[in-house]
Write a structure and sequence with these properties.
This protein is an alpha+beta fold and 154 residues long. Helices cover 31% and strands 23% of the residues. The chain is built from three helices and five strands; from the N terminus they run αββαβαββ. The chain has a five-stranded mixed sheet with strand order 1-2-5-3-4, with helices on one face. Helix 2 crosses helix 3. The longest helix has 23 residues.
């Protein structure tokens, strides 16, 4: 077990299995020294624990926790193409999509769930640029989707 996975264990987390693609794409792709993940839904053991719009059927607090799950799934996808999370030099960018009720404007707070997890696990390497975007609907009626761009050590 590497240092990153040891930190996950210290936080009481385990790296899940990579979420299988829902369509014609790969969960993560490596290009040179970068890894780009597909949008990761908050799947837990192959299922969405909650569906619906944030600010309607899903509370912002629930959605923040779901964003955390998305980030954990993204780390699993990264490991699937690198073999070792200790190869992460830094998280470059996080993009979070939040299926939002028409009057919900707290997308940044929701996506903080992903950002905070990456910071807790990776320390300074987890500090990143970010976008938090409200959308009408996400695949499978998921409340949140997160994609991550990672730079690897040479």
């Amino acid at each position: 077990m590497g240092a990153v996975e040891a930190k996950l264990a210290e936080l009481g987390l385990t790296l899940p299995e990579v979420v299988p693609p829902l369509a014609a794409y790969q969960p993560a792709v490596r290009s040179g020294m970068y890894v780009y993940t597909a949008g990761q839904l908050p799947m837990v053991e192959g299922k969405l624990p909650v569906t619906g719009k944030v600010g309607a059927e899903v509370t912002p607090e629930e959605a923040k926790e779901l964003a955390r799950t998305c980030a954990l799934n993204a780390l699993a996808a990264v490991k699937s193409v690198t073999g070792d999370l200790d190869r992460i030099a830094r998280v470059v960018k996080v993009v979070g999509f939040v299926a939002s009720a028409s009057d919900f404007t707290g997308q940044p707070g929701v996506v903080n769930g992903a950002s905070e997890l990456l910071g807790a696990v990776l320390g300074d390497k987890g500090v990143h640029a970010r976008s938090a975007v409200g959308v009408a609907v996400l695949p499978l009626d998921a409340p949140v989707e997160v994609e991550v761009q990672i730079e690897l050590v040479p």
